[in-house]
Sequence to fold (150 residues):
Amino acid sequence: MLPSVLRRARPVSTSAALVRPLAHHAPMMDPDPSRPVEKAIKTKLTNSLKPQHLEVQNESHMHAVPAGSESHFRVLVVSSQFEGLPLIKRHRLVNEALKHELSSCVHALSIQAKTPEQWESNPTLAKSPPCMGGSKGDHTVEEKLKAGGE
Fold:
């Protein structure tokens, strides 16, 4: 098993993943008040990176977690603060803004960090990588959950 630090947040680049258009997503929507982690993510990224476009998607339902969980997220952040920065430094800015959530309740965070120019030329969001810690497609998840509780 990988150490939790390696399993936690895996940045994804558009070149390494499938992309799909975002025509059906509404940017900067108010989060559901019953979703405190999602709300914290949106607030912290908005305050720290002043994004021109921000999307936060809770993908926990796609994983072997209890209903209503807030543990797996995908974020798209479009910010002028990313201009001139390599991808790794952009991801570090996002991780720094969300360090509390990443050290406590968020198991996986897929990040797409674009400059406004990059977003304008390619308004797509990369598909999240598969979860290595028990996705719904993992038929051994019951065994893993039992082993974790023993």
User: Anything to note?
Assistant: The longest helix spans residues 36-49.
